[in-house]
Structure formats: structure tokens, C-alpha cells
Amino acid sequence: MNDLFLRAARGEKTERIPVWLMRQAGRSLPGYRKLRQKYGVLELAQTPELAAQVSEEPIKLLGVDAAILFADIMLLPLALGVSLKIEDAVGPVIDSPIENKADIERLLPFKKSNVLYLGETIRLLRSRLDVPVIGFSGAPFTLASYLIEGRPTRTWTKTKKFMLSEPQLWDALMRRLSDAVIEYLSVQIQAGAQAVQLFDSWVGALSPADYRAYVLPHVQHIFSALKERGVPRIHFGTDTGAMLEDFANVDCEVISVDWRIDLSHAREIVGKKSLQGNLDPHILLCDWPIIEKKVDEMLEDLGNRKGYIFNLGHGVLPETPDGAVKKLVDYIHAQ
Ligand code: CP3
Prior knowledge:
By secondary structure, the protein is of the alpha/beta class. The protein contains 16 helices and nine strands. Strands 1-4-5-6-7-8-9 form a seven-stranded parallel sheet. Helix 13 (244-249) links the parallel strand 6 (233-237) and strand 7. Helix 4 (48-62) packs parallel to helix 7 (116-128), helix 7 (116-128) packs parallel to helix 10 (167-191) and helix 8 (140-149) packs across helix 10 (167-191). It starts with a helix and ends with a helix. The structure holds coproporphyrinogen III. Residues 22-27, 36, 41, 68, 70-74, 86, 88, 91-92, 136, 152, 199, 201, 315 line the site of coproporphyrinogen III.
């Protein structure tokens, strides 16, 4: 068993740097692209044999040190009865976005029986892989923003208006989602996920004060509830530099940051917790000498590699050449 990732997540020094990449499953790899000609993303994720194949592909082709479950953050709202689809070149689109109390009350209670496929995929992966399997969920803010906006946004206009104008409703929605996230991740851990990552992809859109008031207590509740499950918990967000102290105060093992903050600075703020990140995924679109230089600079700035997991600052871009990713993984392994 290659447990480099788990040891680094627990803060240990490892003989080499463990590496995995957000969105390594899906996106650019050939086996995934072929499956996508026949199946939609949600259909793939809900078919354990196919989902397991997609999760396994980067282990075989790229040699990364951990597998991420092939799923999507929108599977949780789907399990709560939200009607949605993932549109090509757009992303998640909700049929009836949340606007009021009745919409929130229409969310169904979480039922394990609605996500049995997740456990099955994780069990398949555990029986076939010799690297750890990472489970994940969207964080309540990121999920709420999709449910309220109804589709991807760059401005979060409706979300912010709802959050600030209807604080009680916002709180009710965040509670519903947080309780569901706890159960959704618990199902994954019970099935064998050896670590979990909470993706708060869009929370950097908030001011630090609003983050503390409207989001932090809910995220804290999720991470505390998962503590007793005993697996490393990763807290990821983008553009969190200004709120990193609060973000890092949440009880978890690993903080994952994007490229908008130096790793040395992030390290100072997160203290004893492990650190994951943070190469700008756009760098992988450049020629190799540029990639190598950027990685060297990043690792130089990081200094001590104890409790460090290499990753990108956000997901692999769809147009990234597979060759560049493989070369990157090999290069990190040689450090
Ligand atoms: O990391 C992995 O490789 C595992 C699979 C994974 C998917 N979605 C499959 C997917 C993971 C971890 C996610 C998380 C996810 N989904 C997030 C959080 C991480 C992040 O990137 O910020 C978010 C915000 C979503 C919502 C979502 N799903 C969007 C915005 C899109 C469309 C645009 C995009 O990112 O590709 C999806 C569709 C989706 N989910 C794809 C994949 C592989 C692309 C589908 C395709 O092949 O066209």
C-alpha cells in the first residue's frame, strides 16, 4: 500500500512528496473521453463499474499517489430531490432554483439509499487500488450558490442578496445542506474512503467578515461531526487568502489553497496543519521548461516538505495535454 498521501495528510515527513490533482479523473484522459461519448457525467458517476474505471485511470496512466472518487458535487442535491442536469460547456443547471422558504422545505431529507452507488464505487476502488481513495463533497456555501443561482456564476449576485437579505432562510438552507454533507461523507467513509475533501470552490467570493458570519459555523459543524470517523479531512477553497486564518481555524488535518497565496505565507497561517496545493493549472498549458521553473520556485518557497501534498490550486483544465500532467507527476516524485 502506498500511504505517502495519508502520512503527509497526518503531518508526517515522507520520503517523497505525494501528489494527486483535483479533477484528475475525467477531464483530459483518453479512457474518460471515450466513455463520455456514450454517457453523461452523472450517469457515469452513478454506475459504479464505470465510475471506478474513471477513478482508476489516472492511477494507471499518471502514477498519482491517491485516487479521487469519480462523482460530482451536484450528486448530493440530486439525492435531496433537486432536479438538475450538467450541461456541456456550461456546468450544473437547476430546473427550479431556490428562491424562498417553500423551496428550502421541498428539499428531501438525506437518505443513504439514494447514494448506494457511491459506496459500491468506493468498495470497487478499495479492492483494486494500492493507493488511498479520497471521498468528497461540495461545501454548503458552494452547493447553496448553485441552488440559488441555478447555474454557474462569476458574480454570485443572487446568492449574496439572499444571504444578506434573508439571514434566517440562509441559515436554514445552510443547516439542511450541512447535515446532508455530514451524512453524505459518512457514507463514503463507511464504504472505505480513506480521506475526505470538502470543496468550497466559490467561498472566496465573500468578504472575510461575511465568511465568518454566514459560512464558518456551518463548516465548523461539518468538520467536528466528521472528526470521530478518524480519516484525514481536507478543507479546500479558492481565493481564500484574506480569510485563511478563519478557514484554517476549522478543526481539520489539511488545508488546500490556490495559487493566489504563496505556500510559505499559507504555511505561516495554517501552522501545524498539513498543506496541499497550489500550482496554477494554467501553467500546465505552457512548455515544459516553464512548468519546471514554476514548480521549482514553488517548492523553494515552501521550504520544509513535512506535511505537504502536491496538488494544483484548482482542477486540471480540460485542454491540458496528458503528457504535461504525466511529466509533472514524475518530476514531483523525483524531488
Ligand atoms: O476530481 C476529480 O477528478 C473527480 C471528479 C469530480 C467531478 N466534479 C466530475 C466532473 C469532482 C471532484 C468534481 C467536483 C466539482 N463539481 C466541483 C468542485 C471542484 C471545483 O472544480 O471547483 C464543482 C464546482 C462541480 C460542479 C461542476 N460539475 C461543474 C462546474 C462542471 C462543469 C464544468 C467543469 O468543471 O468541467 C461539472 C461537470 C463535471 N464534473 C465534469 C467532471 C469530470 C466535466 C464533464 C465533462 O466531461 O464535460
